[in-house]
């Protein structure tokens, strides 16, 4: 049975040993001093870490805005490519299916145009002066069209795999048959559907997908088997004429891979970074991407980038995010001066972008938010102007200025800056960049400078430190 004493065990343990010599006492005290020094150092380090953690939990929140197809999701992909390259690579297999869906969609649009040409040819109604006049389709072309019908099955399979149930759908039919495209609700983890099919996700892009599902493999084999027919169809001169009459410029559409059919339908195909940036998947819902970023010798920050759907019907979902954002990157595609909205063909895309920008800069909710303007798709603007497309035919206020990239892009930059000056509730600085966000190198430089600016300047001073 234990005997109770007045001395607590700790005091007892710390007492000098009985009969301690002066030398032993000195050595003990020195040891104790050193132990204390070590313990203080550890405490100091723990405190430093705790303080750093406290600071780093404050996240920098960035919202990507702009009309549909302006390049928001592509900008998000660039953020991923720079800040979490490993997860970007791990998603390659999912993007392969999207590239394949993009190819199959382009072929479907051609087939629909051919069907329309056939219907016109067999119609007994007298053609009006404004009716399209299609060339005659020869039997070889009709046979080719039949041979490509199995691609419908490929589309359904890929679609089913990505949806993994019900998260994907075709666009609303009222957008017209030529506009129908596959959308993903980005709030749902669609990429996981593929990750589950490939249990050895790590490095799966470096070797054959041993665990790929039967459906997925069959879809790829079918696409591969149709490769030659797809190439013949795309290169057929009558098809080119039909598409011209149909006013369908597939090469200007998002997710265009028809010039690379052989490569992307090869059985060993794995998407490159460039393919992933070009692959088109329309967003509905809001997707959120987080990463940790360190600028210079500052404490790492948690960044959250939000990507939203830009189609008209989806814009109401933006507003709840306005409140807590540190910065907005607004994407205005400069190349769209001659295009109309997919969701409303009475509205010019450039006008829609300008109107949206006006709404954003004049919003009282955003008066303290950093605004960054990406004047995007500069590569397409350059190519369009070089091919002789006349800017002033669509933007009459441009007048007689030269029809070149330098002048047109500067004109549009002045237009957007003027709106910001005129409509901001309070004077504000904002940053403007000319971008082509499918160019990962130049976009990486721009995003690097955006990140740096946000951390060091306004956010560093006012909100985050
Ligand atoms: N050539 C070129 N293509 C671009 C550029 N930016 C985006 N794209 C392509 O345009 C298409 C549409 O881009 P997304 O990033 O999906 O557009 P989004 O703004 O997210 O569109 P929603 O999700 O519908 O709101 C994709 O196929 C991109 O690869 C660019 O600067 N140049
Ligand atoms: Mg998107």
From TrEMBL:
Disordered, as annotated region: 1-44
Pfam families named in the record: G-alpha
Keywords assigned by UniProt, alphabetized: GTP-binding, Magnesium, Metal-binding, Nucleotide-binding, Transducer
Ligand binding (GTP): 277-283, 376-379
Record-listed Mg(2+) binding positions: 283
UniProt cross-references to PROSITE patterns, sorted A to Z: G_ALPHA (PS51882)
A GO-annotated cellular component: cytoplasm
GO MF, any single term: GTP binding
Top-level taxon in the UniProt lineage: Eukaryota
Biased composition (Basic and acidic residues): 23-44
PANTHER family: GTP-BINDING PROTEIN ALPHA SUBUNIT, GUANINE NUCLEOTIDE-BINDING PROTEIN SUBUNIT ALPHA HOMOLOG
Protein name (Swiss-Prot/TrEMBL): Guanine nucleotide-binding protein alpha-4 subunit
Originating species: Mycena venus
């Amino acid at each position: 049975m234990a005997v109770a004493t007045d001395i607590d065990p700790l005091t007892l343990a710390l007492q000098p040993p009985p009969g301690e010599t002066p030398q032993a006492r000195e050595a003990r005290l020195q040891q104790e001093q050193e132990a204390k020094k070590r313990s203080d150092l550890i405490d100091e380090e723990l405190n430093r870490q705790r303080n750093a953690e406290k600071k780093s939990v404050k996240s920098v929140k960035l919202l990507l805005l702009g009309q549909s197809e302006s390049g928001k999701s592509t900008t998000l992909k660039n953020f991923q490519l720079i800040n979490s390259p490993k997860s970007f690579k791990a998603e390659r297999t999912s993007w392969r299916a999207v590239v394949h869906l993009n190819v199959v969609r382009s072929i479907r649009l051609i087939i629909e145009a051919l069907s329309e040409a056939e219907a016109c040819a067999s119609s007994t109604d007298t053609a009006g002066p404004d009716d399209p006049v299609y060339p005659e389709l020869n039997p070889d072309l009709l046979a080719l069209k039949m041979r490509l019908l199995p691609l419908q099955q490929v589309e359904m399979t890929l679609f089913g795999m990505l949806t993994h149930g019900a998260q994907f759908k075709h666009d609303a039919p009222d957008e017209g048959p030529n506009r129908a495209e596959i959308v993903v609700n980005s709030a749902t983890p669609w990429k996981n559907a593929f990750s589950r099919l490939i249990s050895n996700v790590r490095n799966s892009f470096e070797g054959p997908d041993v665990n790929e599902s039967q459906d997925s493999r069959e879809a790829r084999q079918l696409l591969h088997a149709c490769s030659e027919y797809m190439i013949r169809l795309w290169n057929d001169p009558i098809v080119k004429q039909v598409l011209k009459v149909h006013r369908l410029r597939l090469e200007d559409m998002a997710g265009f891979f028809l010039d690379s059919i052989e490569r992307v339908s090869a059985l060993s195909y794995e998407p490159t970074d460039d393919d992933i940036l070009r692959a088109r998947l329309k967003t509905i819902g809001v997707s959120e991407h987080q990463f940790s970023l360190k600028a210079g010798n500052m404490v790492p920050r948690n960044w959250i980038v939000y990507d939203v759907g830009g189609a008209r019907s989806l814009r109401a979902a933006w507003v709840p995010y306005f409140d807590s954002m540190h910065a907005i990157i607004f994407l205005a595609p400069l190349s769209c001066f001659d295009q109309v909205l997919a969701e409303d063909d009475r509205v010019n895309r450039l006008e829609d972008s300008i109107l949206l920008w006006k709404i954003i800069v004049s919003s009282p909710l955003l008066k303290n938010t950093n605004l960054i303007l990406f004047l995007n798709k500069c590569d397409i603007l350059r190519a369009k102007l070089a091919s002789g497309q006349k800017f002033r035919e669509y933007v009459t206020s441009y007048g007689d200025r030269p029809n070149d990239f330098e002048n047109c892009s500067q004109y549009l930059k002045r237009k957007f800056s003027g709106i910001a000056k005129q409509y901001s509730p309070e004077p504000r600085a904002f940053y403007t960049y000319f971008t082509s966000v499918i160019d990962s190198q130049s976009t990486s430089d721009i995003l690097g400078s955006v990140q740096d600016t946000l951390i060091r300047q306004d956010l560093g001073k006012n909100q985050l430190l």
